[in-house]
Design brief:
This protein is mostly beta strands. It contains 5 helices and 21 strands.
Length: 318
């Protein structure tokens, strides 16, 4: 088949905490009132990206990958389904305090999908923060009592953030994105969230949003958050820096000024999420104009590609 760089259009998720930056600043088109999340690379059944260009234009990315699994590369054979989901998230208000299940818990209960994720802070307000883990270790009894007494936020760790910060959140880690943060997320392809605390908010139906305390208590690590160090100075360059390397995905921050050359081999596709800047991509004999908010999927075996311009990019492979 003819390989070419695929430009993807996102599935847009509207929520009570979402903002409009993706619509007003990142070129995301939607009729929804807000764009809390743009699922920029997704084959998930809850919302697939769609293809904007070439022979697959107008089709869902999920259907394209299902019919053409070779686009994903040999590493994809290690997974039952397309393994990752990449998002932009615009938090105008606090997200719920939540946790995602581990693979072991999903297998034990026969429900849900595990979810390990990582966040790159694109922009944030001066006093913005995340909730990550706890100030100190808690017992299961103390955890459940804090939820019941509405005092959970007294025990969680608030981490102040700035533009350019990166966080790796293993499944089972209590967390929340708080208001005033714009980030890029690379995650396991899952939409399973156990909501532990939601500031007593109500949903669009006027009713309190559902909590998942029992499931959440069963999987939450009741300890301080620890940030893994994936850095590898031997492999990093001035332009490309490794952020995460786990069995699910590998993530780099790519910052170009002028020209950058890369390659997509037989092992994996290359996802390029454009966080800032503009320029061109030359790949497979085609030239694509790129700008902030674009999501590009370069198929496995596409070979060499060149970026020209000034960019800040999250690059992901499996």
């Amino acid at each position: 088949m003819n390989l070419y760089p695929i430009k993807l259009l996102p599935y847009v998720s509207e929520t009570i905490w979402g903002g409009r930056k993706l619509i007003e600043e990142y070129g995301v088109k939607t009729e929804k009132n807000n764009a809390a999340e743009g699922w920029m690379l997704s084959c998930h059944e809850a919302g697939s990206s769609s293809v904007a260009n070439g022979i697959f234009a107008g089709r869902t990315f999920a259907d394209v990958v299902k019919e053409n699994p070779e686009l994903c590369g040999s590493n994809a054979k290690n997974f039952e389904d397309f393994p990752i989901l990449i998002k932009f998230i615009d938090a105008m208000d606090n997200l719920s305090v939540q946790v995602h299940p581990t693979k072991e818990y999903c297998e034990l209960t026969g429900k849900g999908q595990s979810k390990t994720e990582c966040w790159y802070i694109i922009d944030c307000e001066e006093d913005a923060s995340l909730i990550l883990g706890f100030k100190d270790k808690l017992s299961p009894e103390e955890f459940k009592a804090a939820i019941a007494n509405n005092t959970l936020t007294d025990y969680v760790e608030n981490v102040k953030v700035k533009k350019g910060d990166f966080f790796f959140i293993d499944s089972g880690t209590l967390h929340a994105i708080c208001k005033g943060i714009m980030l890029a997320e690379v995650q396991e392809s899952s939409n399973t969230t156990y909501r532990i605390y939601d500031y007593n908010r109500v949903g669009a139906d006027g009713k309190p949003r559902e909590l998942h305390v029992e499931d959440g208590a069963a999987v939450t690590k009741l300890e301080k958050y620890s940030q893994p160090d994936f850095s590898n100075p031997a492999l990093d360059t001035d332009e490309r820096r490794l952020l995460a390397d786990c069995p699910l995905f590998k993530v780099w921050k790519l910052e170009t000024k002028g020209s950058f050359s890369g390659s997509a081999d037989e092992n994996s596709f290359v996802s390029l999420l454009i966080m800032a800047g503009s320029g061109k991509l030359l790949c497979c004999g085609e030239t694509l104009e790129l700008t902030k908010g674009d999501s590009i999927f370069i198929p496995a075996n596409a070979g060499s590609y060149t970026l020209t311009g000034e960019f800040e990019i999250i690059e992901t492979r499996i």
